Amino acid sequence: MDYRERYREKNEAVSERLELAFERIKEIRECVGLSGGAALYFGALAGFVGQIEELVELIGADRLAGYSLEQLQKLNRDLYGDILPENYENSPANPAKTAEWFGKSLGQRMAFVAAELRGMVVYAYEYRLADIAICCELFIELYNWFELEASGEMTCEALEAQVKETVYYYVSDYSDDKAEIRVHELLDPTLTFAKDIIMESDLNDLRYLYRYGEYVSDNELKTAAYLNGLPEETIREMASTYTEGYRKGFVLAGIDLSEKTSVEVRFRLGFERVVREAIRQFAAMGLDVILYRSPVHGADKRQHMKIGYYGAIANPQYEYDHRNDLALFLDKPYKDRRLAMLKVAYEACKELAAGYAGPAVMETFGEEPFAYVNKPEVCALSEKQQKLYVTFNGESANLVQQYIDPEKRSFTIISYPTPEIGPDYEEIFRETIRLNTLDSSRYELIQQTLIDALDEGVAVEVLGRGGNRTDLRVALQPIADPAKQTGFENCLADVNIPLGEVFTSPQLEGTDGILHVSDIYLGSIRFQDLWLRFEDGFVVDYGCANDPDEAVGRKMIRDSIMSQHDRLPLGEFAIGTNTTAYAMAKKYDIISRLKILIIEKMGPHFAIGDTCYSHAEERPVYNPNGKEVIARENSCSLKRHEDHSKAYFNCHTDITVPYNELGSIRVIRADGSQIPLIEGGRFVLPGTQELNMALDELA
Question: Where are the beta strands (DSSP E) in 250-381?
Fold first, then answer.
């Protein structure tokens, strides 16, 4: 169904409202009756709304189809212009600037509103006029309050109270409709806005990239152009690696994929040629593809992470500045209302939810590392809000699992470089394709050799070397029947591509020590001299050298790694075996450009939070040799039988110690004897030394 037709009734219902709103904002643009920072703020945003009005007219009349590539590029840059790095300092969406204009508290809300209005760009491309009308009316209401204050009819204190109330009820009231829309976007494959672009466009004509409404940079243009030059056979292989990995995940987990009807595909713009082929291959499996956009509404966002399809990030600092805007409206009534609306939305979509098989994620690496500035003017969750946030995440996760059974879903994830990685891009891309298609049978035997040794132990000792201070003893779960059971999963190229790890859910009691990494990117944040201290399997202290002020570094860890929790367990211990990935990273000097998906295969890694089997502990898991993996839970997740809120944390962050920082990994038997697995960053266990060949090439 044409996306404009889908929203036709809503569009018609608001057409008069929107026309009046545009007219009123045009009056504001032509004569801003305010002064100082308020005049600059409302003048800039009124001008932006004028751009949106013109964009709606262009899209409604299908006139963009006649635009040249250069015209589309100019339009795209104009729409995102105020948040681009060179303009952001004076942007009304910059909390530092709005704090200068309005003071910190009021400035935070005004910056949030400016960020919300930016969502009108994608609303226009999807022709969602009702959403645009709501944003315009929010803008007008705020302007009216400022006009009253400027005329002396309202005090500054009253103005701030009214703005606070207006913003709160905008989010709270609007979240009802947004929850319904968001759940449908996640579950309904008949919402085909992005799919139509991919399946119907001439992908050799790069103008198609500008049909989404996302920001488009050279990365997306060059990626699409490069993929267009690859042979069809290579594209099929790339898509098959991805889709077959997804299918194998269901087979290995013993889940009947034929009972499912849809798969959610996440990707970054530029990869449409591969996504188009993946859509066809998934269709051959009986799965209809869902493509939904990374959220733009503040209530739907998850800090500054991108979940869904998305284009270039116009300005990482802008995204980072707004990561905790939730603090402006998160309270218990809002939490309860949001959960109630999610419940209603999922109930309405319960048949679609039952057919949802899970996400298939195509992520990218190679983006230039960004040094975020921690601004004192940005929003921060209070201690009370942090607890509410944790509670909300837990309750919403439990709600979703009532409709999407975690024991009947799976996922897969794969990664490719972007041109931003540098002049060796094409060579690195070819190497990545090779990396993603390594011989699973070869690794299966080597990794089983590691597992056999690990199963002899009661613990594993991991030590760093050089400047790395890692000194950690990881307790292993006891195996009752070694002939039929194992503690580690033999992870090959299925849900987690590329292959190359063996992992377990450690026993928390007896897991103690320090984990330290000198330099690592987690998400999009670079941590320097990151350390965490464990007692009985829980993180009890942590720090990093990101800022001279130790408290700033601790807050960054709490916000990202700890996900606002006071304590988190060690949910996973793994040994990465993909020395080929490590050799590639060292050869091209791109370790700092890699995502955790590849980095976790390049040494031992430790996941903070839930286990890999979270919410699916009852489902048996077997290795290729037929042994059941029994380490699927720990003493924390066992609490699910009594209280889900005490069993799960709804986060899982992998932290890897790379081979070059690794002193040793040794299995500790019950009698105290040891089995060396890795010494000095090299595999020493007989039957695993083949893995050193890739390391030898670096010498």
Answer: 262-266, 288-290, 356-365
**Domain coordinates of the chain in residue numbers?**
3-154, 193-412, 438-696
Beta strand 262-266 pairing with 288-290: parallel
What is the pLDDT of the chain when averaged over all its residues?
93
CA distances from 152 to 48, 81, 149, 650 (A): 28, 35, 5, 49
Q: How far apart are CA 545 and CA 547, in angstroms?
A: 6
User: Which of these, 488, 608, 517, lies nearest to 560 by C-alpha position?
Assistant: 608
SS3 of residue 171 by DSSP: helix
> What is residue 528's three-state secondary structure?
strand
The structure tokens 């309050």 sit at 145
- The predicted pLDDT at position 300 comes to 82
Distance between CA 156 and CA 548 in Å, rounded? 37
List, in order, residues 6 or more apart from 191 with CB less than 8 Å away. Answer: 6, 184, 185, 290, 292
Residues 6+ apart with CB under 8 A from 266: 307, 308, 309, 359, 360, 361, 362, 363
pLDDT at 699: 66
Name which of 200, 202, 274, 283 is nearest 231 in CA terms: 274
Token digits of residue 237: 């292989």
Bridge partners, residue 264, by sequence: 290, 359
Alpha-carbon Rg for the chain in angstroms: 26
Q: What are phi and psi of 325, to 5 degrees?
A: -60, -20
Amino acid at 503: F
Q: What is the pLDDT of residues 496-537, one digit of tens each?
A: 899 999 999 999 999 999 999 998 888 778 899 999 999 999
CB 70 within 8 A of CB 86: no
Q: Give the Cα separation of 27 and 147 in Å (integer).
A: 13
Residues in the chain: 699
* CA–CA dist 414, 303 (Å, integer): 23
How would you classify the pairing of strands 288-290 and 356-365?
A: unpaired
Please state, in angstroms and as integers, the Cα–Cα distance from residue 525 to each residue in 272, 368, 528, following that order: 27, 12, 10
Tell me the pLDDT band of 1, cut-offs 50, 70 and 90.
Answer: very low
Residue 648 in contact with residue 568, Cβ under 8 Å? no
Please give the share of the chain, as a percent, with pLDDT higher than 70.
99
Instruction: Give the model's confidence band at 440: pLDDT under 50 very low, under 70 low, under 90 confident, else very high.
Output: confident
Whole-number Å distance between alpha carbons of 632 and 211: 45
pLDDT 10s digits, 561-595: 998 899 999 999 999 999 999 999 999 999 888 88
The Cα–Cα gap between 450 and 56 comes to 60
| The token pair that represents 264 in the structure block | 């959610």
